[in-house]
Amino acid sequence: MHDFLRTFFDLHEILQVLPTLLTEGLRNTLLIAALAIAFGVVAGVLLAMLLLSRRRLVRLPARLYVDVFRGLPAIVTVSLVGLGLPAAGIRPFGREALGYAVLAIALISAAYSAEIFRAGIQSVPRGQLHAARSLGMPYLTAMRVVVVPQGVRNVLPALAGQFIIDIKESALVYLLGLGLGQRELYFIAQERQAATYNSSALVAAGLCYLLLTIPLTYAVNLLDRRMREGRRPPVTAAPAKAVA
């Protein structure tokens, strides 16, 4: 029992690594996740519009993108983007590993966000689009002004859930060998664990992830519950029966 506690809950090790986890790791984890979900939202809306197109040649590239990046394990995508692109001479971020890390997670986030937005847009009654078109709006304008805003509102809880997934998947970018100042939570903890052969640093990183994801999970559930309650029709009292 003593060895178990010393390996996983060594207070000295936790206190040694915790300041770096909080000042550097937490900041970069949130940065990667925030940039990834921002890209995912913008690209996801565009991809969803393409997926809903009536033209097969327009739908096919979007469907191929979504299927590929949803089907590949995240660790494969991170490796292909962060290690493969520079090796092939494609270096949009130079030698900055953090840029490739954000791009890899963002590409995955965009694929999942596209399906979220597609479902949200399809949940909007078709009559909304027909009414906008009857007022003389072009199709794209009607989608942008009328349909898409309603679809986005319907999928806000799912988008918040995707942000939580991006936070957790950011741990995979340790493969790219981030430099000092760019390391995220898992990278810092893994370095410490490799140096000390003690897993307490990983436990400390896990606690940091839980401090992020658990409150966000409850916030997502609360948002989802409030939105579902807001969509319920108001309850009206039954008319009183006339007394004979």
UniProtKB/TrEMBL annotation:
The keyword Transport applies. GO terms for biological process: amino acid transport. It is a multi-pass membrane protein. One of its GO terms (molecular function) is transmembrane transporter activity. Pfam families: BPD_transp_1 (PF00528). One of its GO terms (cellular component) is ATP-binding cassette (ABC) transporter complex. It is found in: Cell membrane. Belongs to the binding-protein-dependent transport system permease family. HisMQ subfamily. PANTHER family: GLUTAMINE TRANSPORT SYSTEM PERMEASE PROTEIN GLNP (PTHR30614:SF20), MEMBRANE COMPONENT OF AMINO ACID ABC TRANSPORTER (PTHR30614). This is Polar amino acid transport system permease protein.
